[in-house]
Amino acid sequence: MNSLRDKNNVYVVEHLDPELGPWSALEYAAIAAESAATGASFCLSSVPSNLELPHELQQLDNLVVENESVEELFRDCKDRVCLLDPRAESELSPSDVAKFDVFVIGGILGTVPPGWEDLQ
User: Fold this and answer.
1) pTM of structure
2) Distance of CA 89 to CAs 19, 20, 83, 92, Å?
3) What radius of gyration, in Å, describes the C-alpha atoms of the chain?
4) Cα–Cα distance, 60 to 48 (Å, whole number)
5) More confidently predicted of 33 and 6
6) Residue 52: Cβ-neighbour burial (10 angstroms; 0-12, 13-18, 19+)
């Protein structure tokens, strides 16, 4: 996992589903493209080992796919991990870039209002 830690910023989505549908694939491709445009990496964590990614995701150089959870991947640097949570008491600020290397996208993507099942 050292390759992820060597990056300036890593954006992580914990993939909690046993499958990956077309809508999620589009969201993941968009996050990967936007991350790449800023020099950051995008990681899908907790991906089941038997899950075959769609071809369009397999072709992305900026996408890192891990079977381990975000907690396992970054257990030795938790103080550098920021959970991006729309319910947070304070907003993210430009100065936070100096405090964190890993940004975990919280909530269930595409859910309005956001689902909080992943935080239980």
Assistant:
1) 0.80
2) 33, 31, 12, 10
3) 14
4) 19
5) 33
6) exposed
